[in-house]
Amino acid sequence: xxxxxxxxxxxxxxxxxxxxxxxxxxxxxxxxxxxxxxxxxxxxxxxxxxxxxxxxxxxxxxxxxxxxxxxxxxxxxxxxxxxxxxxxxxxxxxxx
Length: 96
Ligand SMILES: [Zn+2]
Prior knowledge:
By secondary structure, the chain is mainly β.
């Protein structure tokens, strides 16, 4: 597991506060990114406030990130450690 820190809401009415959690290890077709910047869009705000009635707390908003590749999985060929990368939406897409 990879230790990580984010800003999380613990309830629909709470402010965001520093939050330590763990990410899964890097899979064979994944990259680990040291996040430098993160956007917080309107869908993040809806999610934090549980306005779609499906929020799982603690909730760390921000799904649009820019950072540097820190580690690559054994099957990754398009990126290398140190590359500047961005994630537009969400991880673990089914690709269909
Ligand atoms: Zn968004």
